Amino acid sequence: MSFINYASREINCKIVYYGPGLCGKTTNLQYIYNKTAQDAKGKMISLATETERTLFFDFLPLALGEIRGFKTRFHLYTVPGQVFYDASRKLILKGVDGVVFVADSQEERLDANIESMENLKDNLEEQGFQLEKLPFIIQYNKRDLPNCTPVEELRKLLNPDGVPDLEACAASGEGTFETLKAVAKQVLIDLKKGS
Amino acid sequence: MLGPQSSLVMYDEEYKRIMTLIEKLLRESNSNVIFLVDKNGQMIAATGATENLDTTSLASLTAGNIAATGGLAKLIGEKEFSILFHEGEKDNIHISIIGGRIILVVIFDQRSSLGLVRLRVKKASIELAGILDDLVRKTEIHDEAPGVDSPFAEITDDDIDNLFN
Predict the structure, then answer these.
(1) In angstroms, rounded to a whole number, what is the distance separating the alpha carbons of residues A93 and A114?
(2) At A99, which helix (H) or strand (E)?
(3) What is the pLDDT of residues B34-62, one digit of tens each?
């Protein structure tokens, strides 16, 4: 969970991007990394296979600025999406403050989205979390592709609880910062409630 | 011990005690860099030759490393591997878990030795665990009185929006 350091007046929060393989989690982070000012970001780390598939996680530290005299830092992580990396996904969810579920809008990935969402719930429960109680955003990615499932249908299947959701095209950056902003806002509101 | 879902809070007093302790450990173990990381990858304190080091990345990868080896441990029926050691051509990393949640990382070269580092770390760990216990107690007292002198209770929507402008 969040780390509040009164000594250095810093607050650190952990956000995890979750979703099926090749849905665009790493692409979200890469876009944010490329478009963020040098002094506001750390090095982006990608533990990936030779074919650039995420093996363990991607990590991007961001400094968003100050809030009430406290430096606000967000640590963004992605999980490996491929089904057989489940053990690694569980580890990355440890201590999470907010989750972004990146859904792949392509018709043929509908089942993969549903499976990944179930997997997210199961893995969070194993860590003692309930998805309903966590800051949670759903991003419908790849909206620019021709074979997209309509958002209404995706919403019905993936977002029955009506959490905040957005459309995006992470490759061109559309919706990526909006997603980050939405989840960061929820995390901070949560912090306010819990304080 | 801190539970998996409790926020870690660091206060000035404990931070100073921790810094004094790890600075002493740095001298006594003849090491180059020492840092403390939360199991979730948050850097807590660092000392030594950190100027040219990306400590944020080190913290995150250390936590990933501990998480992965912890997963391995469970698979073979162990609770955790409390000490990890990575040997390089010049520099070595000694990693140990303190109080179940905090990770102590010591980077050293040929001016020290694994034996010396292990010995000094063992002694410092007991003291560090004591400081962490104090920190947990203090956090619990604060949790029982939510809102009291917390800077976050007063956050407004405008404050949050301003972060993104």
Answers:
(1) 18
(2) strand A98-104
(3) 999 988 888 999 999 999 899 999 999 99
